[in-house]
Amino acid sequence: MSQKTAASADNQYVEAGGVRYAYRRFGKPGRTPLLCLQHFTGTLDNWDPAIVDAHAADREVILFENAGVGRSGGTVPSNIAGMAEHVLHFVDALALSKVHILGYSLGGFLAQEIAISRPGLIGRLILSGSAPEGGAGAGMDRPELLAIYTDAAILPPDKLKRLFFPATPAGLESADGFLARLATRTAEADLAPDPAVASSQLQAMISWANWQGDVGAKLEKITQPVLVTNGNNDTMIPTANTFTLATYLPNATLIIYPNAGHGALFQYAADYASHTRTFLAVD
């Protein structure tokens, strides 16, 4: 298993609660595994090899595909709690007693829910480009974003460029590098998400953003060490939400990457991998 990489790791499947979940598992056994939860409409193929392969040198990395996405069965829940419940079904099916979680964007919403509902499962959390429940703009339903999501004339790689990277020479160069790394996959590819995935996930994210509860009181329930990261100008899930997370999480470390947006982790992949590996190095 340790010889596999993001490019060569097999698609694997496990069934729980009547749903067959797709995942990839690779890396060095022995330490607490890192469970990776993906962004809006993202699949197993959207994880940056520069990040997950770096972590695989330290520990097992588990890339999870939620219900209704890519090669996983079932249907996409229209709420975050339902998506988080699927993660827990999957974790139980693999008999994992403890994990670290890297939750990117939408995946960070799920990570927060899991940390509260089953705190004993979580060692450490990494929340990148994410937001608390009730976070302003976290629904990603602004007209300028919807125009990109729904424009069939824009190819998926170009959508990633526009949404994740700044339109600067350095940003565009980073975008090309990221896309080139994704293209190194040699084993069986994932399936593209069905159009219904975006609709259900967006509905869940809008409901998350519109929550009217006490944001600080909820975040104070997450007592695990948390690394919170983002770019300084995230136009998808506004960077202000990252500062909110860092303010109210009781045990948070904050990293903001300069001249970057939602895809800061990909734009600064080597730095991000170094920072996140250091954060998890305690075990």
TrEMBL record:
SUPFAM superfamilies: alpha/beta-Hydrolases. Gene3D superfamilies: alpha/beta hydrolase. Keywords: Hydrolase. This is Alpha/beta hydrolase. InterPro entries: AB_hydrolase, AB_hydrolase_1, AB_hydrolase_fold. It comes from the Bacteria. It comes from Luteibacter rhizovicinus DSM 16549. The lineage of its organism: Bacteria, Pseudomonadati, Pseudomonadota, Gammaproteobacteria, Lysobacterales. GO terms for molecular function: hydrolase activity.
